Structures are given as structure tokens and as C-alpha cells.
Please model this.
Amino acid sequence: MIRYLLRRLGYLIPTLALVALMVFFLTHLIPGDPAVVMMGPDATQEDLDSARQTLGLDQPLWRQFGLWMGSLLQGDFGVSIHTHRPVFQSIKERFPVTITLTTLSLLLSLLFSLPAGVLAAAYHNTKKDYLFMLGTILGVSVPGFWLGLMALLVFSVHLGLIPSTGFVPLWIDFWEGLRFMILPSLTLGVYMAAVVARMTRSSMLEVLRLEYVTHARAKGLGEWKVMTKHALKNAFAPTLTTIGLQYGMLLGGAVVTETVFSLPGLGKYLVTSIYMRDYPVVQGCILFIALVYVLINMVVDLLYSYFDPRIEHA
Amino acid sequence: MVLRKLRKNRLGQIGLAVIALNVLVALLAPVIATHDPLRIDVANPAAPPSAKSFFGTDEYGRDIFSRVIYGTRISLFVSLFSVLFATAVGVVLGAVAGYYGGWVDNLIMRVMDAVMSFPAILLAIAIMAFMGARLMNVVIALGCVYVPRFARIVRGSVLSVKQKEFVEASLALGNGDATIIFRHILPNCLAPLIVQATANLAYAILAESALSFLGLGTPPPAPSWGNILSEARDFMLDNVWMTVFPGLAITLAVLGFNLFGDALRDILDPRLN
Model:
């Protein structure tokens, strides 16, 4: 197990280095002079020089990258062009909002999708199963941000049940915070719920064909016990991988959801910084979210081996 | 054979019909639209749906029905071309990686892994943030994001087919690498490629609308569905119709590709069901 862990970590380093390289080169996609683009048309020569220096644009390319990587390794994500605050500091302040949103979304979508997937497998090829499939296809077809807008219209404007915008951190007032978080996390989680439900259904169907399930039934175990205790544990491994991969969907979707609901998270920060052409902040946010995603998938890989011990450790 | 099986697949037929409807609307947009989608009518802003303008008008008095109709063009254009781009680049990279192996394979696939390390929409946002909001940039950004999915499929099938006897026979006949790759190996991964491409058409429509909604996609005043929603957002409290119809249009189009894609997958690749 430890060797597997080390190998997995060793594999992580080149991937992370490439991710950093890609984020570094993003600034080179800017058409024209980045300093001019960032500081706007009214910038003085002094502004431009100072921006070039902050960004290290006056250095040769390889040195720019070296310096950038060097600071990254020390946890220095650069400085905002507009506020001159360290980017990492701002990320640290906003990330809790985003991780709360995505985690709540994940939990809510599992709450619906796992039972739904198991039930659909149990009712395979019946009307209930078809309805389920249709529902999941709808789930992956509706744009989450539009669903968010519609939910706002219905639940806050017309029914007045939930405040339309605003935010209270869950760790300050849990129930009040939940009122602000429930619509964003539900609308963000719909896509994932649909994907995970379908994956659960198909891996359950795969497992239910196996002999040990027939054996469990033959032993006289109740259907419920067969499904949850015997089938689901084995069917869960492929579902888990889906969850890991789909977490990226949540992190990416959070950017849009936070914008719709005006939540003060990393995604909203990213979008605002894009509008202000604060590229060091944009780079920092993108790199940070990618790092989180890579780490989550590594954890999922490790968990996978718990649910499916057949996986190679050697 | 595919057609015969599709005849039995009700949902697949519905999907295909929805796609056909979208294509038709896109092609015939000037005929179907009742107004010029860009024409501003200051005398008639934020009008509710009526016989004159079926989906109402937006805050500039532009006819939302006509904008949604023309939006079909943009959505289909972006999704079709970004998927074509991703397929072309992905097929070449995957084939080269799988066929030559060694460090070439390693290099290409590590880069693909790095691209996959970003949540898809985030990478598209990143590329758009730096390249600027332009229609062609949306195509390129989404195309780049989807390349690895195609490269992986092709590489996988190249690896499994490379050892087969007919490839050796072709080599023995003195055929070059390109001939072997294009004539003997690629036809073997056509089925999973088509399935992946159809699914990606759906993703691309969703992604384009999200990018445009954030102001990072098709630049206004072009009537992309995401743009209509983005502009309607500030007015939706009093003007529900502004947001309802473009959203329904997105959902319907994506639903069509998803239904058809699922049916294709069941037909072409029974293992995956």
C-alpha cells in the first residue's frame, strides 16, 4: 500500500509541473502586449513599466518560468495588479466558500443519485427504469446556471422562501448559511447526480449478474440486503471514480454558479478578475483549482483500492 | 445495420428528430425568424410575449424569438467545429502516440493528462480569459479542452490493433506508416470515436452557453443563447420570458444530442451499456 502511495505521488509531480507550465503559458495567449492589455489604454509609461516588472515580463522566457515556479514552490502565487495583495491570501479567504458549495453539492447529489441508481437497477427494464433514464438524460441536458436562474425566480422571488443573494458562512451560522447555500448546491449538483446515478445503475447491473449475488439470494437473504450489502459495495468502486472525475465538473461549474448567486467564492473572484484583466489573479485561481482537482482524484484513486482490493498495488 | 437498430430505439429516434429540427432551424433561420435579431426597437422594450413577438422582446426591444432562432446557428456552429477540431487533433495525436510508442507516446500522453487535470469548463474559461471573447476563440478553446478524450480513444485502439496479423501483413507488403494508420488502424476505432463525438456535441453546446453567459464566449450583440440569458439576467425579475425561452432552447438541443448519443452508444458499443 505504501509503495502504491509513493508511486502515485511520484506520478503526480510531472503532471503538476505540466499543469503549472500550461498555466504559465496562458499569459502568452494574450494578443499583443500583456502589460498594455492589463493596464488599459490610459496607462502611463510608468504604469506599464511597473506592470512589466511585477509580471517579470522584462526577463527572458525561461527565466520568467523559473522565477514563477520558484515562487510557486514557496506558496507565492504572485500579486494582484490592482490591489497589490498576494493572490494566495485572497484565494485562502475565498476557497472555503467554494469548497462548501461543491461539497454540499456532492453530498446532495449522492443522497439522490445512489438510491436512485440502485432502485433503477432493481427495476431494470421496467417503466420505472425508463423514467429514471429519461430523468437522468434531462439532468445532463439542462444548463445548471439556467436552472439556478429559474430556481431563484421560483423560490426567492415568487415564493419568497429563500433569500435571492447574499451569503452567511456555514461555520458562523449553520442554518442561516444553509438557506443561502441550498439553491446553489442543488442546481450545481443536478448534472453530477444524473451522471452518478447512471453509473451506479450500470455498475449495479454488472454486479447483479455475478454468481456471488445469486448465491446470496439462494442463501435466502432479503433482496434489500443483497442489494445494499453485497452488490452496492462492489458496484461502488467504478461509481467512486466517476465521482472523482465529476468533482471537476463541480469545481468548474462553481465558477458559473457563484456568479449566478453572487457567492463570494473563488469562482466569482476568478470571473471578476478576468473582467478586470488582473491576470496574475486569474492564473493563481486557475492553478489552485486545478491543484485541488488533481489531489482529489489522487485521493479517489487511493480510496478505489479500498473498495476494489483487486487493484494492483505492486 | 446501424439504421435498422436505430429503428427499434425510440429515444434515439426522438434525439435524431430533435437534432434534425435544430439543423433545420439553423439553416432556415432567416425564413423562420420574424424580426431582425439585432434590430433595436426603443419604442418596444421588455414587451411580454404576444402575437407580434412570440417570446417577447428584451430590454432593447429586440425580438427574443428571432434571437433564439438565430442562436441555434451559433450553438451548432461552435459545437460542430469545436468537436471537429478536437477529433482531428486528437486522432492524429492518439495515433502517433499509440503507433510509435516510446518517448513520443510518453510526451503526448503526459500533456493530455495535464489538459485533463483541469476541470473542462475551467480550462475553457482560462483560454478565453487570455485569448479574448471571439467566436473562433470559443471553437479553439473548447476544441483544445476536448482533444485528450479523442486522443485516448485512438491511442487505446491503436495499441490493441497494432499487434494484429493484418497490420503485420500490411507492413510486410511494404506499406508506409501513414497508410497503415489511416487504412487499417483508424477504421477500427470509428465506433467509439463517433460515440464520443456525439456526446461532445452536447457538452460543447452547454459549455458555449455557459461561457457566453459569463461574457467569455461569443461576443455580444451576437444572439448566442448564453448571451441572451446573460443580458436578460438583470431584468428577469419583472420579465420572466426573457430567461425562460433561451434556456429551453439550450436544454432541447442538448437533450437531442444526448438522446441520440446514448442510442448510438448502445448500438455501436454494446459493451458500454
